[in-house]
Amino acid sequence: MAITFSDLHTEEGVKSVEEHLAGKTYISGDQLSVDDVKVYAAVSEKPSDAFPNASRWYDCVASHLAESFPGKAVGVSIGGSAASAPAQAEAPAAADDDDMDLFGDETEEEKKAAEEREAAKKDTKKPKESGKSSVLMEVKPWDDETDMKKLEECVRAVAMPGLLWGASKLVPVGYGIKKLTIMLTIVDDLVSPDNLIEDYLTCEPNNEYIQSVDIVAFNKI
């Protein structure tokens, strides 16, 4: 059953994580998973000592991410708070020799992200002040001969007001193919993730390297 958290930028939201982690080391299972990375990305800063379980978990995830991304970080200010941009934990996909769709069907996480984006579009009661969102994308190449360095250069070359690219990582898929997972922060009124994909990332000339792009996680900041 899916685990649901909300308003993780608030004390009440962090409290729900604190209670969930009672007697646990990670959000789900006994190893670090994508669930931990998604929750970590939504928590704006390290929980205080008033939340010992959440604070210990936050340090644990930060330590794992530091090992995966050894580059020196200077800190990124998002919505008035310091936040780091983690990349999705590596999760190799199993592939059936007779199944040529190496990337599989839409996952529950992708469906949830799509629903959250649609809900954000329909919400007309929010203040006029533009909000921000943190998005985790998966960028998939055509095959194992695709130059992944060029692919990432194409992605990061896309620039527009309200768009900030973050940390990235190559994740093995199968048959020697890797996909690019990359974090980005957007200003909601200026950047539409769907338009970004359709009008920039998967059109010419970028489609020479990029087969498709999926939104794995979408969180309001």
TrEMBL record:
Residues 109-131 have a biased composition (Basic and acidic residues). Coiled coil: none annotated. Gene3D superfamilies: 1.20.1050.130, 3.30.70.60. Pfam families: EF1_GNE. Residues 132-221 form the Translation elongation factor EF1B beta/delta subunit guanine nucleotide exchange domain. Residues 107-134 are annotated as: Disordered. PROSITE patterns: EF1BD_1, EF1BD_2. InterPro entries: eEF-1beta-like_sf, EF1B_bsu/dsu, EF1B_bsu/dsu_GNE, Glutathione-S-Trfase_C_sf, Transl_elong_EF1B/ribsomal_bS6, Transl_elong_EF1B_B/D_CS. Keywords: Elongation factor, Protein biosynthesis. One of its GO terms (molecular function) is guanyl-nucleotide exchange factor activity. One of its GO terms (cellular component) is cytosol. EF-1-beta and EF-1-delta stimulate the exchange of GDP bound to EF-1-alpha to GTP. Belongs to the EF-1-beta/EF-1-delta family. EF-1 is composed of 4 subunits: alpha, beta (1B-alpha=beta'), delta (1B-beta), and gamma (1B-gamma). This is Translation elongation factor EF1B beta/delta subunit guanine nucleotide exchange domain-containing protein.
